[in-house]
Design brief:
This protein has 231 residues and is an alpha/beta fold. It is built from eight helices and ten strands. A hairpin with a 2-residue loop joins strand 1 and strand 2. Helix 3 crosses helix 4, helix 3 packs parallel to helix 5 and helix 5 runs parallel beside helix 6. Bound molecules: adenosine-5'-diphosphate and magnesium ion. One of its GO terms (molecular function) is ATPase-coupled transmembrane transporter activity.
Length: 231
């Protein structure tokens, strides 16, 4: 598995109301295949997740993936670490599904013909073969999230950071997308409110008020989170 290191990495930003700490300096080494991040809205989960591929730069400390500094070697890190958003529409920009996957592959495969074949194979793998030539807008929410994930996974990254990938989905699609994510060979960092999914991971981080307040075995971490919320 890739080695993700947060070395006293924190994020502070200036806001009109003064300086604000989005994530306190945090030291973590993530080597497990499936790491879940849980916590309340606004606790700092996305800030933590976004630091792992340089979408947010740490303002203190450093984040490294396999020795690459996320701030200074951002392009190399982003080839290793894919990121998927809660709302797949943020990621789907082309008129048809196959074109969207082709767009992801543009740097990976120079030949347009081979790129199309690769994109079709990717759609097939995610059960979207018959959607190749239809508009992204005609897909259901679940299919759209699958397509967005197919796009970021098409280039075979080493790590997938998924920020609440099932939050907008119904139960059946949550199950389907969850099974896909947890079955990946790649390392997965999964921000989620779905505690059943979190329990299926190898390690769970609980974020509260810009801090990682619990870190460990899924059952114990989820129980600690539930206890802190439900009292
Ligand atoms: N760039 C920013 N500037 C100011 N505040 C921000 C910024 N990004 C996030 N926040 C705020 O910081 C807090 C933590 O954000 P975030 O990491 O998105 O939390 P979560 O993903 O757990 O909901 C939230 O209150 C959010 O509104
Ligand atoms: Mg978030």
């Amino acid at each position: 598995m890739p080695l993700i290191e947060l070395d006293a990495a924190g994020v502070a930003v200036a806001t009109p109301d003064g300086d604000r700490v989005l994530l306190e300096p945090t030291t973590l080494t993530l080597t497990e295949r499936r790491v879940a991040v849980v916590g309340a809205n606004g606790s700092g989960k996305s800030t933590l997740a976004r630091m792992l591929n340089g979408l947010v730069a740490p303002t203190t400390g450093a984040v490294r993936v396999d020795g690459l500094d996320v701030r200074r070697q951002g392009a190399a890190v982003r080839r290793k670490v894919a990121f998927s958003f809660t709302d797949p529409s943020a990621q789907l920009v082309m008129p048809t599904c196959v074109e969207d996957v082709e767009l992801s592959l543009r740097r990976h495969e120079r030949s347009a013909g081979r790129r199309r074949d690769l994109a079709l194979a990717v759609l097939e793998r995610y059960g979207l073969a018959e959607k190749a030539d239809v508009s992204v807008h005609s897909l259901s929410g679940g299919q759209r999230q699958l397509l967005a994930l197919a796009g970021v996974l098409a280039t075979d990254p080493d790590v997938l950071v998924a920020d609440e990938p099932t939050t907008l989905l119904d139960l059946a699609n949550t199950r389907r997308v969850g099974d896909l994510l947890l079955g990946l060979d790649q390392q997965l960092v999964l921000v989620t409110h779905d505690l059943a999914l979190a329990r299926r991971c190898d390690r769970v981080l609980v974020v509260e008020d810009a801090r990682v307040v619990h870190d460990g075995e899924p059952e114990a971490a989820v129980a600690a989170y539930e206890a802190s919320v439900l009292g």
